[in-house]
Amino acid sequence: MVHKTGEEISPEVGVLICAVLGDAVRWLRQLGGVSLGDCVVIIGPGQQGSAGVVVASECGAEPVIVVGLSRDKRRVAMARELGAHLTVEAEKEDAFQVVRHATKGRMARLVMDVSGSEAGARMALELAGKRAR
Q1: 1, 5, 65, 127: least CB-packed within 10 angstroms?
Q2: What pLDDT does 2 receive?
Q3: In which order are the strands placed within the sheet that holds 64-68?
Q4: Total number of domains constituting the chain
Q5: What domain range is 104 assigned to?
Q6: Predicted local confidence at residue 46, as pLDDT
Q7: CA-to-CA distance for 88 and 97, rounded, in angstroms?
Q8: Is 117 among the domain residues?
Q9: What pLDDT does 114 receive?
Q10: 52 falls within a domain
């Protein structure tokens, strides 16, 4: 598939956007099957996490919850602008309790960990509900 871009987007930036957004589409929609009303938790508010917020939101996921660290304030703020319903600062809040409250105990239907940390991987398993992806 080819899309024409304006002159303001360099070829290098265009490739980066496609790669990052393409990963999020593959991980959340194609492999994860994200759908209308699914609770999606994204651990890690970097480029991949931001792309995940866009994809989850466009697929109708609700709530979309992003977990980051205190040092990620700007990235977490951007996640809200991109469509995240809730955000969690992992050092200050209990992500498990936030997700449990937001889902009325069902937990997340889909968790995407793009934190690159062992703690993020453990958290992903903790936040996933029954039959989660």
Answers
A1: 1
A2: 66
A3: 86-89, 64-68, 40-43, 110-113
A4: 1
A5: 33-127
A6: 94
A7: 10
A8: yes
A9: 96
A10: yes
95-102 and 118-127 are packed helices; what angle lies between their axes, rounded to 10 degrees?
A: 30
- What's the CATH number where 56 sits? 3.40.50.720
Q: Residue ranges of the chain with pLDDT lower than 70?
A: 1-3
Q: What is the pLDDT of residues 8-46, one digit of tens each?
A: 888 888 777 788 888 999 999 999 999 999 999 999 999
d(CA 127, CA 122): 9
Report the pLDDT value the prediction gives residue 3, as an integer from 0 to 100: 64
The token duo for 27 is 């991980």
| Residue 37 contacts residue 108 (beta carbons within 8 Å) | no
pLDDT value at position 17? 78
Which pLDDT does position 24 carry in this prediction?
Answer: 93
d(CA 98, CA 21): 27
Does the residue 75 lie in any domain? yes
Has residue 119 been placed in a domain? Answer: yes
Helices marked H in 1-133? 11-24, 47-58, 73-82, 95-102, 118-127
Rounded Cα–Cα distance for residues 20 and 108 (Å): 23
